[in-house]
Specification:
It contains 15 helices and no strands. Helix 1 runs antiparallel to helix 2 and helix 2 packs across helix 3. The longest helix has about 30 residues.
């Protein structure tokens, strides 16, 4: 096959990938408003820009009109990392410094290729390549670090399918940028990237469209809020899915409310499933679909915080330190406890204790 045919196939794959990317972005912005969806939309727009700017024949050195496309393209590594954080960590929140990091990296990349720099253009290519690779590895690390406690089946599959492909694509881009080859070989590199890019975007579109038609697939692009009541998840007070085993649910609730296994150090989904004598995937399904929890740690913390709230509201324990109460309930350190407690109640443990004891005191006085 001649080089012209290879270029034609390359451009066709890139055009298809860019089109699918923009379609995905439009659907996400139309149907979703959470941080994960906005970051997903921004990420696929960056992918579309990358498909265009890395195409054979795209002008080099960079013309001024190509710099906005480059800015969108080189933001992809930061956006991918932030997307992984927002998608796989239910407690993630966007911070101002995330935007500052994005602006800094884009600024350095634009400075490196600015047309007026002449012979100094491209001096930062290699350091920037390592920065992009580092952000990709951080995204992969985020997926791995929170894999075990994740209870959402679709999101667990997404970690493997999308991250492996994205890491492979980023690694291929790094190799190509660090070890450029002759023109005949460049077409092979470029075509391989184009095919992989098209495959990744097609996979993303398939997952998105499947989520739109299949209730249980809605977790493929999950929200960042740890709120029950999504499709296929029962909120408190709602009927649970018929797939939930009532006997297993009763045994689990007994373990949590009577035996208080959440107090144990190092309790995991694996140890709990072994104690119940069921497969781990069945327990994950029960907690996710039957009780509405997306994360095993959040499930444990819900019982821990209820116990802490009861202790803080008890006048007989007002001399017991907050740290002691938190540790007795199963928290391992004060920082995670404070964050979990404030996320649940909106106030600090100290403020919660003060308010509840004051309310109790006024009730006694009025009586």
């Amino acid at each position: 096959m001649g080089s012209n045919a290879l270029v034609a196939i390359d451009l066709g794959c890139r055009g298809a990938a860019a089109g699918v990317s923009l379609l995905i972005a439009g659907l996400l912005l139309r149907d979703r408003s959470d941080a994960a969806a906005r970051l997903s939309a921004a990420l696929v727009v960056a992918v579309a820009a990358s498909a265009v700017t890395s195409a054979p024949g795209f002008p080099r050195p960079w013309p001024y009109w190509g710099l906005p496309l480059l800015a969108m393209s080189c933001s992809g590594a930061v956006l991918f990392w932030l997307w992984a954080r927002a998608t796989f960590d239910d407690d993630f929140e966007l911070r101002p410094w995330h935007g500052a990091l994005l602006v800094a990296i884009v600024g350095v990349q634009l400075f490196d290729v600015w047309p007026t720099r002449g012979m100094h253009r491209g001096e930062l290519d290699r350091p920037l390549s390592f920065v992009y690779l580092g952000l990709t590895l951080l995204a992969a690390a985020q997926a791995i670090a929170t894999w075990q406690p994740d209870l959402v089946a679709g999101r667990r599959r997404l970690r493997a399918a999308v991250l492996v492909g994205a890491v492979a694509y980023s690694a291929a881009g790094l190799v190509q940028s660090l070890w450029p080859v002759e023109t005949s070989g460049f077409f092979a590199w470029s075509l391989g990237n184009a095919l992989l890019l098209w495959a990744l975007m097609s996979l993303g579109a398939w997952s998105l469209f499947q989520a739109a038609t299949t209730p249980q697939a809605s977790a493929v692009l999950p929200t960042t809020d740890n709120i029950p009541g999504e499709l296929g998840v029962a909120a408190p007070g709602e009927d649970r899915p018929t797939a939930v085993d009532p006997d297993l649910l009763r045994r689990l609730q007994r373990l949590m409310t009577v035996e208080r296994v959440y107090r144990r150090e190092g309790v995991t989904i694996g140890s709990l499933s072994a104690e119940l004598g069921v497969q781990e995937h069945r327990l994950r399904q029960l907690i996710n679909e039957g009780l509405g929890h997306r994360n095993f740690n959040a499930f444990l913390n819900s019982y821990r915080i209820d116990e802490v709230k009861s202790a803080l509201a008890d006048p007989a324990q007002q001399q017991v330190s907050v740290l002691t109460i938190a540790m007795d309930a199963g928290f391992q350190s004060l920082g995670p406890f404070n964050r979990a407690f404030k996320a649940n109640t909106g106030v600090t443990p100290t403020e919660y204790r003060r308010r509840t004891l004051q309310t109790a005191g006024r009730g006694i006085a009025a009586g």
